[in-house]
Amino acid sequence: MIFYFSGTGNSYQAARAVCGPGEEPVDLAKCLREGERSFRLCPGETLGFICPVYYGGVPSVVLDFVRELSVSPAPDYCFCVLTCASSVSDAAGMLGEALGKRGIVLRAAYTVVMPENDSIHYTISPEEERDAILSDAEEQLKVIAHCVAERRRLGLHIPPRGKMVTRAAYPYYEQDRATKNFSVDDSCVGCGKCVERCPVGAMAMEEGRPTWVKEKCALCMACIRCGAVHYGEATKGKKRYVNPILKCCH
Known about the structure:
Elements lengths: L1 E3 L5 H9 L7 E2 H6 L4 E3 L6 E6 L7 H8 L2 E3 L5 E7 L6 H10 L7 E6 L13 H23 L10 H17 L5 E3 L8 H5 L5 E4 L2 E4 L16 E3 L12 H6 L1
Parallel strand pairs: 1-2, 1-4, 3-5, 4-6, 6-7
Antiparallel strand pairs: 8-11, 9-10
């Protein structure tokens, strides 16, 4: 069983690539919204978690899901795949600690470099560069899928600098999740797609326009896929990112 969380499609692509024949990844944000917390594994079934790295750590929605997760029987092999634009820092350690509190041992952590999707803090790569990164990621994911199939126990290897980066950066994630920073401009057509995409239900349609109804969100960039949605002044005039797999599948 493979759980995934993805706002712009990178981790969804990774989850699809790592799944075995006939297997479909499970959207953990949907499980969280619908109150599904208990899962039963088949004998010998692998348990996997695939998600992006935010501010050197794990997205809030992933931690919320894991904190309430109940899996039986306990998996013999649990792994994670972390997607990022540069470094995972101590994200694997953070996830491993959360899983450990639920009696689950994280046996292996893999990293896949994917295109930058954070248009708040960075500039989105040109299409040619994006395609090259995705092509490399496909090859990395083939190797990871093979390692997962063989249940390789790589353990967690977090360098001291990675832990320092996470300790310094992650508190800003909590700060930046404030939805007061979001707005929508007059180019909005009221389609409601941004509301549908929000994994934590932080948005709603009011009088034909999206609005933010919770104080914090997951900061997953799903709503910012639309050029009418902005995060302060930081995203205005910037390109937005969406993984091609979402254009094909959603």
